[in-house]
Specification:
The protein is an all-alpha fold. It has six helices and no strands. α5 (132-161) packs antiparallel against α6 (167-196).
Amino acid sequence: MNKSIDYEALSSLKNILLTFQITMEKLLSMFLYRKGSIPEIEKALSNINNQINSELLRTPSYDKKKVNQFIEIYQRIGYINESFMSIVLAIQAKNDEKVLFSDKAVKEIETLFQNLISMLKNIVDYLGTRNSILLNHLIEDQARYEASCQHFSNEHEDRLAKGICLPRSSTIYLKISDKMCNISWDLISVVNIIGKL
């Protein structure tokens, strides 16, 4: 695989990540303010699936190692897309059923959204620079993010056990936080693969 193909594939990946970033911002608005369009988000995610398929078809087969790396990248992007769809459905259920979250739960989910948006911005920067210091920073960020997800989930389960949180709210909260943690894990997996290209 030559450099121009690497550049094209990374450029396409950058566009996908920018779409994820915009989608994350729209999901946050839907979560906080009940604003936004589910069909618009679903269309953006569907377009990503089409783009993934297109990129995989354009990947030449003469460098088997790089082909496998790009296939793994696009598989991870597919997993991220699935996690986004789960978040969309959870937020839609929250809004449609008028499920209330405590102020603490709202702040925790908002923090997870904001930190993931920041991580996506840094990953896009990394794609442009391939800077090893930024790579290390991203790996550390993801570890902190995962720890935050776990901490927030544990606190939320405690609130549920104490009767502060309702079961339906808890189900939606845990679905959103779990899928956001999955997204961060898949994103850092993509970054690690890119670091080896």
